[in-house]
Each structure stands twice: as C-alpha cells, then as structure tokens.
Protein 1
Amino acid sequence: SGLVAWAQGGLWRIDLTGQATPIPFHVADTREIRQTHRVSIAVAPDDFDVRMIRGARVSPDGQQVVFQALGQLYIADTSGGTPQKLTRDDGVVEQDPAWSPDGRSIAYATWHDDDLGEIRQVSARGGRGRALTRSPGHFRRPVFAADGAVYAERVAGGWLRSPLHDLTRGIVRLDRDSDAQIMDRGARPQIVGSELFVEVGGENGSRKLVAHDLVSGEE
C-alpha cells in the first residue's frame, strides 16, 4: 500500500515509510501546432480616443460641462461639439472642477510631484489659472459659496504623494485677499445657503455629517 502523487513533472509511488519511487510511463499523443495570433498594438500613439472622463460638472445654466481627461480639464457644450482644453496651464494634474454660482468661473485642484498642489480659479471662457492658495499643500474638492469665496479640503500627504506641507488638514476658505483655515477636520465639503456641510470621522470607523455655519462659525 502507499500513495501515488504527481511531482517534478512525473508520477511517484510513496510507501508508508516515506520512500518515493518514480513510476515510469510513456504517452503516445498527437498535437496540432497552429500559427500564433499576433496583433500590432501602438504603445504610445500621438492620437487616441479617450474613453473615460472624471469629475464631470454641468454649469448652473445647463449649457456646458467641464470634466477631467488625461489629467487635464476640458469644457464642452452639453448640446455636443468638440471639447476644448479649459486652461493654458501645463505640467500639472488638474482635477475636481467646480462652477461658480454665476457660471463665469471654475475652481479646481492641481497636483505637481515637486511643487505639490494648489486650488486655482479660471474663467469659464478659458485661460491661465490663478492660484487662490498661498502656500503649497494637498488640496481637493473646491466648492463655491454664494459670496464667491472658495472652500476646499486640505488632505494628508504620504503614500503616493509627498509628505511635505501636510500637517494642516481640514477645510480652508479662499478668496482674492485671504487664505484661512476654518476647520481642522472635514472632507467632501458642500455648501447649502450659509452652511458648510462636511463629512467627518466618528467612532469605530463610522462617518457623520457636520454642519458649519459660515456666519457664526458654530457647528
């Protein structure tokens, strides 16, 4: 008695003492060899169709849509037509576009591996983005308030991003004259009227919604 097992490309008989003996065998077989199917694939073509977009946002009047493709922001008419690059900025990743209430400008976040990130604002007609943040950092998801100020999420660095300038986290308020931290926590900001709603961490990994009054500062 014993055990028959496959190993090392062959069959083996293993007795109760653990001694393994090869089992010789021969197989008569016929195989058909076909021509390998090969397809030529261009690794880095000059032009190709973009099949995935991110962060699409429709303008307040419903006439235009802005979105990210290949790390850049594009704008197009919702009725159709060819999308146009929104900014004249080069060398940075652009993401998280947000329309101003009047539809005249768009805020967005940028990223650069050496210079880190900013929140910028650009005319909806296109042009060069103007930085609203006054120091480099890790910024995401800007939103506009009714008074034209921009609120954005400041997130942690590390992992794939630089760990520099990530000690201050939470929600920042940005306009032409100031760059202020208004909350030391919070993510995914949304504004309804005079209240800022943010998602914050709770106990045991739970999440909860916090309302921050933009006038009184109360939560």
Protein 2
Amino acid sequence: MARHVIVGAGTNGSQLAELLVGRGEEVVLVSRRGRGPDRPGITCRPVDAADAGALGAAAEGASVLYNCANPDYLRWQTDWPPMARAMLEVAERSGAVLVTLSNLYGYGPVAGPMTEDLPLAAVSTRGQVRAQMWRDALAAHEAGRIRCVEVRASDFFGPGLTDQGYLGERAVPRILAGKTVRAIGDVDAPHSWTYVPDTVEALALVGSEEAAWGRPWHVPTAPARSIRQMVTAMANAAGVQPSRVSGVSRGVLRALGIVSAQMRGLAEVAYQFEHPFIVDSSAFTDRFGVAATPVDDAVGATVAWWRTRLAAPGR
C-alpha cells in the first residue's frame, strides 16, 4: 500500500482520492477547509498548500504528491506561485513524485491539433502562470532534484462537476429544462472536452509509471465536438428537445469586463472558443494503451448524475 497525498478537494482531487482508495491505497486529501469524501481510507486535512512546512508534514512518507488545486480564477497570479513553490519544495524533501494537473492555457492560440511538444507561448496572464509552473518543475526534474510529470486536460465535463466548466452548472440544468444555453465564441467550432473520470485515471497512472515522468501528457480525450453538438447529445441522452445555443463574442466579454474582472479573464482566453480547439492525446494512448471514454457513454453518465442531483431534496 502506497501513501498518496492530493492537494485540492475539488471534483478531480476528490474523485482521484476515491479511485486510489478503491484500489487499496492510502490517501491524504488536503485543502484549506479539510473537506472531502467521507470514506474509510481517505484522511482529509486542513492545510494551506502555500505553507511548505504544513504541506510537508501532511506529505511525510508519501510516494506521490498530486497537485489538483484550483485557486480562485481571479487570483491565479497571486495564489499559484507560492503554492507551486511549496509543492516543489515538498516533493524535493520527501522524494514523492510530483504529479500536476494542468490545462491548455500555456500553449496560447494554436493552428491545428495540440500536441505536447508545442511551445508554451501563452498570451494570457493565467496561461503564463501555468507555463512557468511547468518550466520550474521540469528544470528541477532535469537537475535531479525531483521527479515530476504534468497531465494537461481541456475543458472538463462529467459526473460530479458542478460550478466548473462550460458543461457544468451553467449548461446541464438548462438543457434538462429546455432553456437556452449561452456559450463563448463560435458555438459550432470543434472543441475538445475532457471527461473527469478519464482525467483521474490518467493522474493515477502517471503517478506510479516511471516511463511517464519528466514530460507533459494530454489526458485521453474523445474527438472534438462543438458546444452545440454536446448540448444536443446531452438533450438526446435526457430524452428532451435540444436547447437553443447562443454565442457570446469576445467584444461583449470585453465590454462586460469594464465592470467584471471575471469577464476580463474570460476575454483573455476567448480564442479557445472562436476557432477549432482540438487536443491530440494519441501519445498517451499509444504509450499506455488507455483511450478516452466514448463521448456518448460519458454524456449519458453526466446527464444521469445531474438528474439525480437536481432531484435531490433541498435542490
């Protein structure tokens, strides 16, 4: 039985904890509030991930340290650097493999499918933060100070995902109710969507697979579908009429950004929804023999979870 320490008790961190404990591993799940799944084998601890001393104490004896943290979107520039430095320090001191869950912001706008060997040419401040985190981790790995690997995902969807993502709270309840779904950019542009269970499977695999270390990997991700196609697929799975889908332009986001920092942040990365945004995850599948969940299966499971959630007392 290995000891796994997960930073971040959001959707991915919590589902990773459940996956690992289901495989007989020991799991410590740390977050600011110390919350997480109430399940034997998972110890939830309140820890400030920017405090290397406190995090180091929680990670004592760990084989793998997973960075699944998700700081407030408006505070990435201030919150991520100290957290990343603390995790590098703890990984070096403990000898735990550092597995970081990241996204595709670091590439910036690209022409054609994204592969892991693309340069990190982020144009957004948040993308530059994520790109620098990987550069720092890779430099420490290449210097022999730590062992690390990064797993990159596109926009998430799946059971358990509520307030995060374009196919979460802001979309699925509206689909089930037959209401209009509003999305950024071209609603007919092909876009890659990463299924949460595929993400946690990838995280668990690379943490224990030495051949994966020292480079980034894309989570196995199904062929791209536009937001309109995903909304239609979810409506079909639910047996309801497809909702109308309307796009919000970058210009509108910029105008709203005058009074909303959240809208300014979204305008920075609106390029992801204005043109085809396609992940090539073939390297992971070819190396480890793991493919993405078929999108119709993933959509069906997502809709079923939302129906149960929305029918629960108190909703």
